[in-house]
Design brief:
8% strand, alpha+beta, disordered C terminus, 427 residues, five-stranded mixed β-sheet, binds protoporphyrin IX containing FE
């Protein structure tokens, strides 16, 4: 079996390939051209995500292809120490303590600390869309990719005027590591990544030099550090910023785009959300399961490991196919059906599992809930343009819509069917 994640059938709809690998003995497939072991079963993906001793993170942020020498010369100058997704014990537990102490990561704390920021940014963007009744818009640049980045800049204390640069660097990092850029493009993206790293170092240095501690995230991490390199080094603080500025934005952008795609491509689903916003949390959970923003994530084996009779050698790069695990029939009934009412929807692995479980899961969910509720209340007639065809950016990890063209109709279509009470589930 050949897998080309960058084109053709897999790029259009990977579920068929996931099914074929799920059905192979062991649910594990070695792809020599990609240089990756593909792991699909829910139990195995869950185990690999949680077993840091066997499945290490050291190469999680290393490009998935042979980078050209000119780009590699630049990449080796990015001396960011591993902190979050690329760190293994003993560094990772120390950094994780810092993250848990400084970044709100439960629903209550996220609502309390970040809720006002999210509401203000959602209101701004929705008002801009609503000011063009009947007009057309592409929700990707105008909403789904914009909102998480604005929220993140606010809460990390990054100047809004830098939004264009941060967006380009973050997009570039995702293409450089998990995409398939041509050599000249690799060099350009690597140069951008080096600038991005210097930018994060400058942000932290400026906060240190000013001696002023504000409400922003860098200040909070520096206060937590309290000048002690054994708690965190200054380079680690910069590296945390370097990681958060990508992890906290492209992922949530994916969740918003997939949720709106699932809702708007079926008028009954959208109408149900508009009329009954308390359905939104379950809808988002099912979106996470069915269409995860990250559908493959990398680990490297620290020793040989046997999964269902298939032995993977030490030092092997493994692509944990989270998207496939979320469709594993051993866990999910009628796994290929999108159904926000399914009782097993919370068993998805889209935020990871175990020691690296996503620190921003509650923030991403809050953004999704407020965004969908506000869009539904302001633009109940929102719909995809009839000629729209889904297309995604070529990438082995991030599944990101290229566009989401819509008509900004403020009114529900005539003959809108009220949702019968019997169909209304608990949130
Ligand atoms: C729908 C949105 C999101 C998805 C699908 C997502 C997905 C993930 C996944 C799969 C991991 C596990 C990585 C691993 O096991 O190696 C992870 C970790 C992480 N996420 Fe998220 N994420 C989302 C939103 C966010 C947000 C909003 C933030 C922060 C603002 C964030 C920050 C992080 C960080 C820092 C880690 C690394 C944690 C660690 O290594 O201990 N994520 N995320």
């Amino acid at each position: 079996m050949r897998l080309n994640p960058f084109a053709g059938a897999y790029l259009a709809d990977p579920a068929q390939v996931w099914r074929r690998i799920l059905d192979t003995p062991g649910g594990v497939h070695h792809d020599p051209e990609l240089g990756l072991w593909l792991i699909t079963r829910h139990a195995d993906v869950r185990r690999a995500l949680g077993d840091a001793e066997t499945f290490g993170n050291a190469l999680t942020l290393a490009p998935v292809y042979q980078v050209c020498p000119e780009a590699m010369d630049i990449i080796v100058r990015i001396d960011a120490p591993p902190t979050t997704a690329a760190a293994d014990p003993p560094v990772h537990p120390r950094i994780r303590r810092a993250l848990r102490a400084t970044f709100a990561n439960t629903a209550d704390r996220v609502e309390q600390r970040y809720g006002p920021i999210v509401r203000r940014r959602v209101d701004e963007l929705v008002s801009r869309l609503a000011a063009r009744p009947g007009g057309r818009a592409d929700l990707v640049p105008e909403f789904t990719a914009e909102l998480p980045l604005l929220v993140l800049l606010d809460l990390l204390g990054v100047p809004e005027e830098d939004i264009g640069r941060v967006r380009a660097w973050a997009d570039g990092q995702i293409a450089l590591i998990w995409g398939c850029p041509e050599p000249a493009e690799q060099v350009r993206l690597a140069q951008g990544l080096l600038e991005f790293w210097h930018y994060c170092q400058d942000l932290v240095r400026a906060r240190l030099d000013s001696g002023r501690c504000g409400e922003d995230y860098v200040s909070q991490v520096l206060t937590y550090r309290d000048g002690d390199d054994e708690v965190l080094t200054v380079a680690e603080v910069s590296s945390i910023m370097f990681n958060l500025l990508v992890a906290g934005h492209e992922t949530t952008a994916g969740l918003l785009a997939h949720a709106l795609d699932q809702a708007l491509s079926n008028p009954d689903r959208w109408r149900a959300i508009v009329e009954e916003p308390r359905r939104i949390p379950a809808f988002l959970t099912e979106t996470l399961r069915y269409a995860p923003a990250i559908d493959g994530w990398l680990r490297v084996t620290n020793r040989p490991v046997t999964l269902n009779g298939v032995t993977i050698p030490a030092g092997a790069r493994c692509l944990l196919l989270i998207g496939a695990a979320n469709r594993d029939p051993a866990v999910f009934t009628v796994a290929d059906r999108f159904d926000p009412h399914r009782p097993d929807r919370r068993d998805h692995l889209s935020f990871g599992h175990g020691p690296h479980f996503c620190i921003g899961a509650a923030l991403a969910r809050l953004e999704g809930e407020i965004a969908l509720a506000r869009l539904g209340a302001t633009l109940p007639g929102l719909r995809l343009t009839p000629d729209h065809r889904r297309s995604y950016k070529p990438n082995v990890a991030f599944r990101a819509h290229r566009e989401l063209p819509v008509i900004l109709d403020p009114a529900l279509p005539a003959g809108g069917r009220p949702v019968p009470a019997a169909e209304r589930p608990a949130a």
